[in-house]
């Protein structure tokens, strides 16, 4: 084989692999500033303030049953809207769900929880789900195809915000009540938009913890999955805002691509480079265990850590007696759309924007969330422990 | 036939590059003042070196193996599911993984040699097939967990006098490289090199070209499995573990001065190429260069190394601009 052709072939391979392994995330503007001082374009001061306020605000329960409501039935500062025009008494409901994807553990735990929630309600006789496999174009055609299947209510978890907006608008126009959750859309036409407090609160929970636990001048390493995804950018924007107003020194902001080996190498290199790392902030906990292991393998003390509510991290936290916090993006939010759909079909009020509480796992509550028999990637904040089928479907 | 020098063609430059990088590391990071720092580097580099050795066999015989990255991912995900956190399962799962690697290599090799599909296309297809299969089976989220004994090989170390803690993965690395050197010095290894140079000559001389090619793919698959076991041990389960590894391995081999298209290059140089690549990334990180530059650096290395390999020392003559005409304006 001629060597020149090999070069051509290799270049071709790069192009093909680039297409084949595209991440399902919104492509970002790229080249995000590494400087801890620079304000991100994703930083929205008003929304930041609002989310920080929500963290301590008192949530109200449905139909004002305050004390007893479960977190997924609670709402923060709700503006209730009337849904009488959608009311269809009598049950026998056909519920439809256009899902963005089930390609990560968070969505898998959530989707299982949603399916179990559907089983709790005998008035739902049919539950149709189409999985868009993280592709915008597939989700657009999924929503169109659901429109012709006689759904009584349509639940949408959009893959990306802007691209799915017209599809959701078209679905609203058919007169079916549309319920959006997780990521939003840029239209007010859905009956309700359900989501936990948000990325700013998530990022701030971790950053405030480190600000408190790391001594002034301490070195903090920030690990992010990838740039350009709005939910993740918000988490970092909030953390950046809090770090820049504190005495801790952010010595590095690195992208891990959610890869454990890469995470471990990065942390290992930072321990070698800085001599000592006094705190680790992460925008998502998927590789938190690998990051902790890097300290163990280097023979260094494990500094204060920000993780997430996955079982493997929670167990490590307890076993190693770490100083840590786990902000959550609760998977119990997958229960709420089903509850909302039934309320709408029953003609009961729902909030226009249904903001769910977003608790964090702390030292004090850690032991309540560790479930030794659950898989390592199971998310603890699933609100699923009390469901009849638990724990089999989540294993 | 000319006498073979002790260091094969093209080994010199990469060893110089590696030496410069290692010295650079010693100046850039305090951790590299003692053997521990270099051992940590070797430990991080071990999976890539093993992969690069496997890739070397295929490239030197005139092919490509693009399937190794997705093979690594597939094996790590499968291992987690089958081991399921139980030490009792470690042994047979490791054997199964090695078997799977050999099987994938066999399929790649048979399609390339019997159906005469270019290896580039076969292994690209295999990459996509494995990617798709993993996604279908796991839904994108790996399940199960690895047992402590499974992770020992990639993560643990053994006490050795003088050096202190010697990671198991470094031992595996040394064994693989030594075996590869021994193999390439044997008759079969030399014929494999000759296949990449001119397969017709080998065929006319009575060599079994197809068998040798097949062997190269099988070795590549087997070593990809070893790399998978090391990586899984190093960092645990992840569905992204193998992403881009095939290009890293090819970059490493090319950096080692191995000619794409086959027929020239030494396995030591390929291994040194992999180590250099890892050392370079560590150095860039120590100097505070953003990790985002990694793929750009990798691209530049591939292009520069291939251009150098194609023109050798005459490269400067090709690149030298024509003597400019004195501008009087």
Number of domains of chain B: 1
Q: Count the E strands of chain B.
A: 2
* Mean of residue pLDDT values of chain B: 85
Question: How much strand of chain A?
Answer: 15-25%
Portion of residues in helices of chain B?
55-70%
User: Taking Cα atoms only, what radius of gyration of chain A do you get, to the nearest Å?
Assistant: 22 Å
CATH architecture of the largest domain in chain A: 3-Layer(aba) Sandwich
The total strand number of chain A stands at: 14
Strand order of the largest sheet of chain B: 1-2
User: What multimeric state do the chains show?
Assistant: heterodimer
Per CATH, the architecture of chain B is Orthogonal Bundle
Instruction: State the end-to-end distance of chain A.
Output: 51 Å
> SSE order of chain A, as H and E?
HHEEHEHEHEEHEHEHEHEHEHEEEH
Q: How many domains comprise the coordinates of chain A?
A: 2
> In the CATH scheme, what's the topology name of the largest domain in chain A?
Rossmann fold
**Low-confidence parts of chain A lasting 5 or more residues at pLDDT below 50?**
6-37
Uncertain segments of chain B: 1-5
CATH topology tier name of chain B:
ABC transporter involved in vitamin B12 uptake, BtuC
Tally of helical segments of chain A: 12
Which chains have the largest interface? Answer: A-B, 52 and 54 residues
- Rg of chain B: 21 Å
Main location (chain B): membrane
Protein name (chain B): Autoinducer 2 import system permease protein LsrD
Organism (chain B): Lentzea roselyniae
InterPro entries (chain B): ABC_transp_permease (IPR001851)
List keywords for this structure.
heterodimer; A: 395 residues; alpha/beta; Rossmann fold; 2 domains; six-stranded parallel β-sheet; three-stranded parallel β-sheet; 14 strands; elongated; B: 329 residues; mainly alpha; ABC transporter involved in vitamin B12 uptake, BtuC; two-stranded antiparallel ribbon; 2 strands; globular; disordered N terminus
